[in-house]
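no rush on this but wanted to send it before i forget. what follows is a protein written twice so to speak, once as letters and once as C-alpha coordinates for the fold. mainly i need to know what kind of three dimensional shape the backbone takes. thanks a lot i owe you, the record is right below.
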Amino acid sequence: MEDHSFSVFPNENFLDLRLYQYGWEQCAPLHSFGPFIRNHYLFHYVISGRGHFDATDADGVRRDYDLSADQGFLICPGQISTYIADKDQPWKYVWVEFDGLRAAEYVESAGLSLSQAVYRPQSKAEGQRTRDIMLYMAEHSDASPLHLMGHLYLFLDALVQTSSTRRALHGVQLKDFYIQEAINYMEHNYQRELSVEELADVCKLNRSYFSKLFKDSMGCPPQEFLIRLRLSRAADFMKGTRKSIGDIAARCGYPNQLHFSRAFKKRYGVSPREWRQQNQIRQTQQMKK
Protein backbone atom coordinates (compact mmCIF):
# COMPACT_ATOMS: atom_id res chain seq x y z
CA MET A 1 0.00 0.00 0.00
CA GLU A 2 1.43 3.38 -1.00
CA ASP A 3 2.14 5.88 1.76
CA HIS A 4 3.44 8.75 -0.34
CA SER A 5 3.69 10.29 -3.80
CA PHE A 6 6.48 12.57 -5.01
CA SER A 7 6.94 14.31 -8.36
CA VAL A 8 9.43 16.82 -9.80
CA PHE A 9 8.11 19.28 -12.35
CA PRO A 10 10.10 18.85 -15.60
CA ASN A 11 9.64 22.23 -17.24
CA GLU A 12 10.81 25.57 -15.82
CA ASN A 13 10.08 27.89 -18.76
CA PHE A 14 7.67 29.98 -16.72
CA LEU A 15 8.50 33.30 -15.07
CA ASP A 16 5.46 34.62 -13.18
CA LEU A 17 5.03 31.26 -11.45
CA ARG A 18 7.21 28.16 -11.37
CA LEU A 19 6.23 24.74 -10.11
CA TYR A 20 9.04 22.71 -8.57
CA GLN A 21 7.77 19.67 -6.69
CA TYR A 22 4.49 18.32 -5.38
CA GLY A 23 3.08 15.21 -3.72
CA TRP A 24 1.42 13.76 -0.64
CA GLU A 25 2.56 11.65 2.30
CA GLN A 26 1.08 9.60 5.11
CA CYS A 27 3.73 10.17 7.77
CA ALA A 28 4.88 7.65 10.33
CA PRO A 29 4.55 8.63 14.03
CA LEU A 30 7.06 11.36 14.94
CA HIS A 31 8.33 11.56 11.34
CA SER A 32 10.11 14.93 11.07
CA PHE A 33 11.82 17.16 8.56
CA GLY A 34 14.27 19.94 9.47
CA PRO A 35 15.52 22.22 10.66
CA PHE A 36 15.92 23.21 7.02
CA ILE A 37 15.95 26.31 4.81
CA ARG A 38 13.96 26.24 1.58
CA ASN A 39 14.82 28.19 -1.57
CA HIS A 40 11.15 28.41 -2.65
CA TYR A 41 7.66 28.59 -1.19
CA LEU A 42 6.41 25.27 0.20
CA PHE A 43 2.77 24.85 1.23
CA HIS A 44 1.32 21.84 3.09
CA TYR A 45 -2.37 21.08 3.56
CA VAL A 46 -3.17 18.67 6.39
CA ILE A 47 -5.60 16.01 5.16
CA SER A 48 -5.90 14.06 8.41
CA GLY A 49 -4.13 13.56 11.73
CA ARG A 50 -2.07 16.05 13.66
CA GLY A 51 1.42 17.52 13.70
CA HIS A 52 3.66 20.32 14.89
CA PHE A 53 5.29 23.10 12.87
CA ASP A 54 7.81 25.68 14.05
CA ALA A 55 9.56 28.36 12.03
CA THR A 56 11.21 31.77 12.30
CA ASP A 57 8.99 34.79 11.76
CA ALA A 58 9.84 38.13 10.11
CA ASP A 59 11.64 39.28 13.28
CA GLY A 60 13.73 36.11 13.54
CA VAL A 61 11.66 34.78 16.45
CA ARG A 62 10.73 31.10 16.42
CA ARG A 63 7.00 30.41 16.56
CA ASP A 64 5.31 27.07 17.32
CA TYR A 65 2.08 25.82 15.78
CA ASP A 66 0.00 22.70 16.49
CA LEU A 67 -1.97 21.77 13.39
CA SER A 68 -4.75 19.34 12.56
CA ALA A 69 -6.90 18.31 9.59
CA ASP A 70 -8.08 21.05 7.18
CA GLN A 71 -5.38 23.49 8.15
CA GLY A 72 -2.20 24.29 6.27
CA PHE A 73 1.20 25.88 6.73
CA LEU A 74 3.47 27.91 4.46
CA ILE A 75 7.26 27.86 4.48
CA CYS A 76 8.80 30.94 2.86
CA PRO A 77 12.14 31.11 0.99
CA GLY A 78 15.05 31.51 3.41
CA GLN A 79 12.94 30.60 6.46
CA ILE A 80 14.26 28.05 8.98
CA SER A 81 11.55 25.49 9.70
CA THR A 82 10.91 22.09 11.25
CA TYR A 83 7.76 19.98 11.16
CA ILE A 84 6.98 16.71 12.88
CA ALA A 85 4.06 14.25 12.85
CA ASP A 86 2.08 13.55 16.02
CA LYS A 87 3.01 10.39 17.95
CA ASP A 88 -0.55 9.05 18.21
CA GLN A 89 -2.28 10.62 15.20
CA PRO A 90 0.45 11.21 12.60
CA TRP A 91 -0.66 13.54 9.86
CA LYS A 92 -1.23 12.92 6.19
CA TYR A 93 -0.62 15.98 4.03
CA VAL A 94 -0.44 17.11 0.44
CA TRP A 95 2.16 19.68 -0.56
CA VAL A 96 3.35 21.85 -3.41
CA GLU A 97 6.61 23.78 -3.86
CA PHE A 98 6.47 26.86 -6.09
CA ASP A 99 8.04 30.24 -6.74
CA GLY A 100 8.24 32.90 -9.44
CA LEU A 101 8.21 36.63 -9.97
CA ARG A 102 4.62 37.02 -8.74
CA ALA A 103 4.60 34.25 -6.13
CA ALA A 104 5.05 36.65 -3.20
CA GLU A 105 2.14 38.78 -4.46
CA TYR A 106 -0.25 35.80 -4.55
CA VAL A 107 0.89 34.47 -1.18
CA GLU A 108 0.41 37.85 0.45
CA SER A 109 -3.05 38.15 -1.12
CA ALA A 110 -3.95 35.06 0.91
CA GLY A 111 -2.74 36.85 4.03
CA LEU A 112 0.16 34.45 4.50
CA SER A 113 3.71 35.51 5.38
CA LEU A 114 6.70 34.79 7.59
CA SER A 115 4.67 35.99 10.58
CA GLN A 116 1.35 34.46 9.47
CA ALA A 117 2.39 30.97 8.42
CA VAL A 118 -0.79 29.05 9.18
CA TYR A 119 -3.63 28.74 6.67
CA ARG A 120 -7.10 28.46 8.17
CA PRO A 121 -9.92 28.23 5.61
CA GLN A 122 -13.13 30.19 6.04
CA SER A 123 -14.96 26.85 6.20
CA LYS A 124 -14.08 23.16 6.05
CA ALA A 125 -15.70 22.80 2.62
CA GLU A 126 -13.72 25.71 1.19
CA GLY A 127 -10.48 24.37 2.61
CA GLN A 128 -11.15 21.03 0.99
CA ARG A 129 -11.51 22.79 -2.36
CA THR A 130 -7.89 23.89 -1.97
CA ARG A 131 -6.94 20.36 -0.90
CA ASP A 132 -8.63 18.74 -3.88
CA ILE A 133 -6.76 20.86 -6.42
CA MET A 134 -3.46 19.93 -4.75
CA LEU A 135 -4.38 16.24 -4.73
CA TYR A 136 -5.32 16.44 -8.40
CA MET A 137 -1.81 17.73 -9.18
CA ALA A 138 -0.21 14.98 -7.10
CA GLU A 139 -2.26 12.31 -8.86
CA HIS A 140 -1.66 13.63 -12.40
CA SER A 141 2.12 14.00 -12.53
CA ASP A 142 2.06 12.66 -16.11
CA ALA A 143 -0.05 15.60 -17.32
CA SER A 144 1.47 18.24 -19.59
CA PRO A 145 3.41 21.14 -18.04
CA LEU A 146 0.74 23.63 -19.15
CA HIS A 147 -1.99 21.50 -17.57
CA LEU A 148 -0.12 21.36 -14.26
CA MET A 149 0.69 25.07 -14.39
CA GLY A 150 -2.99 25.78 -14.92
CA HIS A 151 -3.77 23.88 -11.74
CA LEU A 152 -1.04 25.73 -9.87
CA TYR A 153 -2.91 28.95 -10.71
CA LEU A 154 -6.19 27.32 -9.64
CA PHE A 155 -4.57 26.25 -6.35
CA LEU A 156 -3.32 29.77 -5.61
CA ASP A 157 -6.70 31.25 -6.51
CA ALA A 158 -8.41 28.81 -4.13
CA LEU A 159 -5.83 29.60 -1.44
CA VAL A 160 -6.55 33.32 -1.74
CA GLN A 161 -10.33 32.97 -2.00
CA THR A 162 -10.73 30.56 0.93
CA SER A 163 -8.16 31.92 3.39
CA SER A 164 -9.59 33.45 6.55
CA THR A 165 -6.67 35.91 6.54
CA ARG A 166 -7.01 37.00 2.88
CA ARG A 167 -6.40 40.64 2.04
CA ALA A 168 -9.39 42.67 0.96
CA LEU A 169 -9.18 43.46 -2.76
CA HIS A 170 -10.86 46.50 -4.30
CA GLY A 171 -10.58 45.79 -8.00
CA VAL A 172 -8.05 47.17 -10.45
CA GLN A 173 -6.61 50.50 -9.35
CA LEU A 174 -4.36 53.04 -11.03
CA LYS A 175 -1.37 51.76 -9.04
CA ASP A 176 -1.77 48.35 -10.71
CA PHE A 177 -1.16 49.98 -14.10
CA TYR A 178 1.96 51.73 -12.79
CA ILE A 179 3.37 48.45 -11.47
CA GLN A 180 2.61 46.58 -14.69
CA GLU A 181 4.23 49.36 -16.71
CA ALA A 182 7.38 49.10 -14.59
CA ILE A 183 7.46 45.30 -14.93
CA ASN A 184 7.02 45.51 -18.71
CA TYR A 185 9.87 48.01 -18.88
CA MET A 186 12.12 45.72 -16.83
CA GLU A 187 11.27 42.73 -19.02
CA HIS A 188 12.43 44.65 -22.11
CA ASN A 189 15.51 46.26 -20.53
CA TYR A 190 16.82 43.81 -17.91
CA GLN A 191 20.01 43.25 -19.94
CA ARG A 192 21.37 46.68 -19.05
CA GLU A 193 21.82 48.65 -15.85
CA LEU A 194 18.52 49.96 -14.51
CA SER A 195 18.06 52.33 -11.59
CA VAL A 196 15.01 52.86 -9.43
CA GLU A 197 15.03 56.47 -10.61
CA GLU A 198 14.68 55.36 -14.24
CA LEU A 199 11.82 52.99 -13.40
CA ALA A 200 10.05 55.69 -11.40
CA ASP A 201 10.51 58.14 -14.28
CA VAL A 202 8.93 55.65 -16.71
CA CYS A 203 5.84 55.67 -14.47
CA LYS A 204 6.05 59.46 -13.97
CA LEU A 205 6.21 58.95 -10.19
CA ASN A 206 8.37 60.20 -7.35
CA ARG A 207 11.18 57.69 -6.59
CA SER A 208 10.22 57.14 -2.94
CA TYR A 209 6.52 56.80 -3.71
CA PHE A 210 7.22 54.41 -6.60
CA SER A 211 9.47 52.22 -4.42
CA LYS A 212 6.83 51.99 -1.70
CA LEU A 213 4.06 51.30 -4.23
CA PHE A 214 6.10 48.55 -5.89
CA LYS A 215 7.06 46.82 -2.63
CA ASP A 216 3.49 46.96 -1.33
CA SER A 217 2.20 45.39 -4.55
CA MET A 218 4.94 42.86 -5.34
CA GLY A 219 6.29 42.00 -1.88
CA CYS A 220 9.86 43.08 -2.69
CA PRO A 221 11.71 46.25 -3.76
CA PRO A 222 12.09 47.00 -7.50
CA GLN A 223 15.78 46.09 -7.56
CA GLU A 224 15.16 42.70 -5.94
CA PHE A 225 12.43 41.99 -8.50
CA LEU A 226 14.89 42.91 -11.26
CA ILE A 227 17.44 40.47 -9.83
CA ARG A 228 14.85 37.69 -9.78
CA LEU A 229 13.90 38.50 -13.38
CA ARG A 230 17.52 38.43 -14.56
CA LEU A 231 18.24 35.14 -12.79
CA SER A 232 15.06 33.57 -14.15
CA ARG A 233 16.09 34.56 -17.67
CA ALA A 234 19.57 33.21 -17.05
CA ALA A 235 18.16 29.87 -15.88
CA ASP A 236 16.09 29.65 -19.07
CA PHE A 237 19.15 30.40 -21.23
CA MET A 238 21.29 27.82 -19.41
CA LYS A 239 18.64 25.19 -19.90
CA GLY A 240 17.70 26.04 -23.48
CA THR A 241 21.02 27.06 -25.06
CA ARG A 242 24.68 26.00 -25.10
CA LYS A 243 26.04 29.47 -24.54
CA SER A 244 28.77 29.80 -21.93
CA ILE A 245 27.82 30.91 -18.44
CA GLY A 246 29.90 34.06 -18.94
CA ASP A 247 27.95 34.97 -22.11
CA ILE A 248 24.64 34.28 -20.37
CA ALA A 249 25.64 36.36 -17.36
CA ALA A 250 26.52 39.33 -19.59
CA ARG A 251 23.31 38.91 -21.58
CA CYS A 252 21.29 39.05 -18.35
CA GLY A 253 22.84 42.23 -16.97
CA TYR A 254 25.87 40.78 -15.16
CA PRO A 255 29.11 41.82 -16.90
CA ASN A 256 30.99 40.37 -13.91
CA GLN A 257 30.55 36.58 -13.94
CA LEU A 258 31.61 36.27 -10.28
CA HIS A 259 28.83 38.63 -9.19
CA PHE A 260 26.39 36.63 -11.30
CA SER A 261 27.49 33.32 -9.75
CA ARG A 262 27.09 34.68 -6.23
CA ALA A 263 23.62 36.06 -6.94
CA PHE A 264 22.53 32.85 -8.67
CA LYS A 265 23.71 30.61 -5.83
CA LYS A 266 21.99 32.83 -3.26
CA ARG A 267 18.72 32.49 -5.20
CA TYR A 268 18.85 28.83 -6.28
CA GLY A 269 21.12 27.25 -3.67
CA VAL A 270 23.67 25.93 -6.18
CA SER A 271 26.18 27.46 -8.59
CA PRO A 272 25.13 28.16 -12.20
CA ARG A 273 27.32 25.30 -13.41
CA GLU A 274 25.77 22.83 -10.94
CA TRP A 275 22.26 24.03 -11.81
CA ARG A 276 22.90 23.53 -15.52
CA GLN A 277 24.27 20.03 -14.96
CA GLN A 278 21.30 19.03 -12.78
CA ASN A 279 18.77 20.30 -15.30
CA GLN A 280 20.55 18.72 -18.26
CA ILE A 281 20.38 15.40 -16.40
CA ARG A 282 16.68 15.98 -15.67
CA GLN A 283 15.98 16.77 -19.33
CA THR A 284 17.80 13.63 -20.44
CA GLN A 285 15.78 11.51 -18.02
CA GLN A 286 12.53 13.01 -19.30
CA MET A 287 13.50 12.30 -22.94
CA LYS A 288 14.20 8.65 -22.12
CA LYS A 289 10.71 8.11 -20.64
Notes: The beta strands are 4-8, 18-26, 32-37, 41-48, 50-56, 62-68, 72-75, 80-85, 92-99, 118-119. The CA atoms of residues 17 and 100 lie 4 Å apart.
